[in-house]
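Why does residue order matter? Because the sequence determines the fold. Keep that principle in mind as you read this record.
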Amino acid sequence: MAAVASRRPAPRSIPDPWLKPGIFIGALFPLAWLIIRAAGSGLGSDRIREIENELGLSALIFLIAATACSPVKRLWGWTWSMRVRRELGLFAFFYALIHFGIYFVDQFPNWGAIPDDIVKRPFITVGFTALLLLVPLAVTSTKGSVKRLGYLRWQQIHWLVYPAAALAAVHFIWRVKRDVSQPLAYAAILGVLLAIRVVWWLQKRYAEGQALK
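Structure:
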């Protein structure tokens, strides 16, 4: 019996077991800090606008972080980034949903004007479109979805993160009326990440073309 037991493979340990719980706790910090400030008087005179701005910014930051996971792995070999990509993407959706929820509640009782707002105000149009693009990503974020859809179709769905992130950046730029230095900085970071993906895609297409010759 002892010999049989000794041949059993040792249980696999989870690499960096603190990583996902740490990101989960850290990702909730912007919301917790916002609640603390809202409970006091730390949000200024236009509290609703400040809350919307900070929630939207958090959503954009998590979107950019999720978009950066593949380049981080490929350029520096940091495999941990791929293990947290799903978590980062879900937090991006979480903050984007609350961001829209605050806007929705703020329109009370004139909720009938929201469709007109979405259609007629470009920055709301692109922001709402970005939120809609994130919905299928959140719904299919489980491992069961990969098996049910097949990896190729699942991957095609999750490419929506790139137009969603681009639209979120445009939403931020158009929402800010004066100093656009901050939204442009985030847009520049996202632009670099998207450019890297485009270069990789072109390299892959070139390699495939060469292989067929």
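The first helix runs from residue 2 to 7.
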